[in-house]
Fold:
Amino acid sequence: DDLFYFRIPIPEVDIIAHVYDSLKTPIVEPQVQLITSTVTDLTPETTGDGGFTFKVPTETPYVIVATQGDKIGMASDISDESKTHQITAQTDSTSVACIGFIQNEKGQPKKAATISILDETTGQKIKYPGDTSLITFLGEKGHQYQIDIQGHDSTRASHKLVIGLNDKDPKIWTMILPDAELLDMSARVFRGDDNQPLAN
Structure:
């Protein structure tokens, strides 16, 4: 066959976000940013009802960050189907969105079995559920965090996150959990009655 290459189209799904304040009043013209492991800023399309729509390839971990002035809100998920997020943007001038993607060496999302986040500035541990390929939290300006993850196959990775006092943009990083190494194995089969090798 004279086949040199081919392209497989990746289906996309719609992700819709509606942004509200703490009183559930829609926020007019917030800054909305969609972040994935490959794209850090997609421009949304505004829907007729005041929402914002993004097109995301299926099975992609993503985070939506919505801000206006000193208000900030976040939502995250995996694009396994079209979804709508109701994001509450709270008044908070001391926090920064922190977003970590967990991948294998090939750049594919990989779930960590356990995730540990330590605020080294205060000594406080942040509880975080495992079995996910995405880490999101609001970090405090002027703080330093130690993030440790462990895969289901006991592989490990660490990341140190430092947030400056004047930082405003989301802090984005990637952690690599290597796939477990495959080992070559061999075996011989013997007859049970006389312990002789069994042919074929």
